[in-house]
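A quick aside before the break. I want you to see a complete sequence-to-structure record at least once, exactly as it would be stored in a machine-readable document. Don't worry about memorizing anything.
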Amino acid sequence: MKNMCGLILILCWWQALGAARSAWRRRICMSHGLAMLTLIAASGEVRAERPNIIFVLTDDFGYGDLGSYGGTFVPTPNLDRMAREGIRFTQFYVASPICSPSRTGCTTGMFPAQWRITSYLQTRQGNAECGQADFLDPQAPSLARLLKASGYATAHIGKWHMGGGRDVTNAPSILNYGFDECVSTWESPNPHPDITATNWIWSAQDKVKRWDRTAFFVDKTLDFLRRHPGQPCYVNLWPDDTHTPFVPSPALKAKHSAGNNTSGEPNFKGVLEEYDRQMGRLLDGLKQLGLATNTLVLFTGDNGPLPTYEHRRTAGLRGSKLSLYEGGIREPLLVWWPGHAPADRLNERTVLTAVDLLPSFCKVARASIPSEVAAKLDGEDLSAAFTGGTPMRTKPVYWEYGRNTNSFAYPKPPEDRSPNVAVRDGNWKLLIHADGSGAQLYDLASDPKEEKDLAMTNPEVTKRLSKQALNWRHSLP
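That is the input. The structure line, written in tokens, reads:
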């Protein structure tokens, strides 16, 4: 019996010792694990998942082209779904009423004239006559370069138009601006052979037909994301729809009874219908890849439309492409980010601009901006707007377009041709010629169509904003 009791005591002691040893091991493992996590976090290897960002920039898009903005040309169910599942903005502005400087503003976070780009980039002679550079300086700030430095895979897919094409053969590669890959059109230093069979923007000989180009770009975008699992991606998806010429597929041509007028409304309807369908394919593709809840898609246009079809494409806003009135620079903006951007949200308060995208995207991506770059930027971080907030811009917004009457194209309707400098400060917008003449003042809160000029009845505001606008204009290269 004594021996049995002793044996039981020994077994109990051994079990207690084992439990103590296990607890000790757990404490040691936890301690080592915490230490390892601390070291890894300090080295930047452990980070919360950062979102993919797809920036869709539509060519020559109208504020009134979408159903969600009052458009009636054709149903746009996929883009309207984007608005329904995300945030729709009513006060988004591009940096210029024409493509090259508008794209420069998106890329650099700076007003484009700072980089001597003030009109569309064309031949060397044409650029010289406009007093502008032949291409964007690769030393300029670049959104893609900042995101790449923070660990993003980066791709430019679609129209570039910041250098290259025509007789400008020395433009730097798109890869020099921070992109890992690029697929681009003829107006670039990296034209893709499937869409540039001839020495022009498009041709009937292109392997990918004009009406399939947006599908081609969407496919390339989804393929890029598929090839970078586990790495955050930034993609410029910049189609050359809805720019003229409007060349819909034979089936859509027949559906809309379209003839041979490639700037006519029936052909435009076919192009817009197909474009909306491809944006639906993009959203569906993200869901199929399991990326929808971790991908921020921002959809907008690069400048106002031409033709406007009696201003129906601008939703009644005055002006068009080539004009600093609202129809030339105010664009639709949709933010789709399931689980982050609240569904069916309308933001009518935040004045958000193209130059704000660089600091805002960097904030979302947790990409640092070096102080020497931050000091140059005209944009502000308004990323809180992407998740339902209503941040307010603290600085005025400036535009210029048209430095002489010989080399710059202007809208034909005289009521759409604006003075060549503009500023928006709060709800006030002032337009004025660079020589100080022709000031016009509008209260956009009550008069977004710019029908009532208040310059004479508000002389103090006119004087203050005129001085601001002209001082800014005279500071440019």
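Two observations worth writing down. The domain at 397-474 is CATH 3.30.1120.10 (Arylsulfatase, C-terminal domain). Confidence is low (pLDDT under 50) at residues 1-14, 16-47. We'll return to this after the break.
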